[in-house]
Amino acid sequence: MKKVSLILICLLTAVLCCAATYNVRDYGAKGDGKCLDSKYINIAIAKTEEQGGGTVILPAGTYLCGSIHLDNNIELRLEAGACIVATSDRAAYDESEVFDGPQYQDGGHTFFHNSLIWADGKVNVAVTGRGIIDGSALTKRDTEKAGIVQGGSIGQADKAIALKNCKNIAIEGITITKGGHFAIIITGCERGYINNVTIDTNRDGIDIDCCRFVNVSGCLINTPNDDALVIKSSYALQRPVASENINIYGCTVTGYKLGTLLSGEKIPETVNWVCGRIKLGTESNGGYRNITITGCTMEYSSGLAFEEVDQGRMENITVSNITMNHVHHYPIYITTGCRNRGPKERTDVSYGGNISINNVCAFDCDSLCGIICTGMPQHPLRNISLSDIRIEYRGGGKPCPSGKVYREQGTNYPEPRWAGPTPAYGLYARHVDGLVLRNVVFSLLRPDGREAIVTDDVTNMSVDGKSL
Q1: Angle of CA points 251, 297, 264, to nearest 5°
Q2: For the whole model, what pTM was predicted?
Q3: Checking phi first, is residue 123 left (phi over 0); if not, alpha (psi -120 to 50) or beta?
Q4: End-to-end alpha-carbon separation of the chain, Å?
Q5: What is the spatial distance between Cα 64 and Cα 140, in angstroms, rounded to a whole number?
Q6: 156 vs 7, higher pLDDT
Q7: Under 8 Å between Cβ of 175 and 198
Q8: What distance in Å separates the CA atoms of residue 250 and residue 278, rounded to the nearest whole number?
Q9: Integer Cα distance of 377 and 130 in angstroms
């Protein structure tokens, strides 16, 4: 898979390098931070597309912009010293597109045209360079309230880069600050990569939704208020579409205070409902399969969260060589549930299986939760393998009260914080068929009143080669 990924990157790079170049200054852009330049950038893009495509260059300068429309065979390149600044003038952004039918996901996942930089149904699109996108004027709000989708558009620009139903995409080298609801969201896209991108933002960093054949590598993502790097499979395409054949490698996610990653101060954020993390879910109508996550680091963030709660299938997930430090809430969380946010006529049951996690070191982990592996009654997680894992917990937990039952996932939002402390400080497993532990070691910074491992309705379990 890595060999194929490298070939894909080389081919995309070769195509972009051979393309003709067009300077936005030649089409009227000022780059003075005062004049609205998106109009002239869009003219440059349109003219370039008419010539068969090429590279639209933004030289050093500050470009005040509303919506920028990427097109076929276009690379938008921000040179070093170039900064696209989102304007606060709502009239400078495109109206949200029409979305017919029920809306099972919030507006941020549903509408794309009300974004700073967007493309819909295009081929060979790229945003590259060493420049900056400043989305301070973008809203981070959405139309979801307490887990309930309200429907409709937020009515403001809410994303820095949004690509929908595009093929052969590339986002490389840029820096995004305060990217709104999503710094980058790609939905229904096929073939492409996101490489060496730095994000310091006020909500999600990178969301990959209903996509396939996508590689994310070498990215540095600071998200103190929400998720860092997320794979989803929502109903935004009005049908269940799996996210599949996705590779994430060599990325770092953090939960520093907003802006302090880029400033170099790196001040840890107070533990929020979630800070950072690499996640599958929660939108999971189509499921996820053939996902690889390797060589990543996490600091002052939540850990790995794999959540299938909307009737899809989560399977063939491989995770390796992960380092975590100062972990919020939990290091590893695997769950299925029956939130079932989708058409009521669907009868599918959420499924999770064939998940392998190995070579993980996690230090200074919150005492709230150990590793969590929870399926559903009569629908267990299947074939979960955890090997060569070392986790250091803060300890200090109290014994689980007699008779208290840890909350079933059911229709609840899948977030351990709201379920309370796990019965075990190291690992809690329930409704699992096939749980393999090899060389899994837990340690405590101070005593903990709970057991290291607690299981409930777990079958076919083995520890270091011995069946239990």
Answers
A1: 80
A2: 0.94
A3: beta
A4: 35
A5: 19
A6: 156
A7: yes
A8: 12
A9: 51
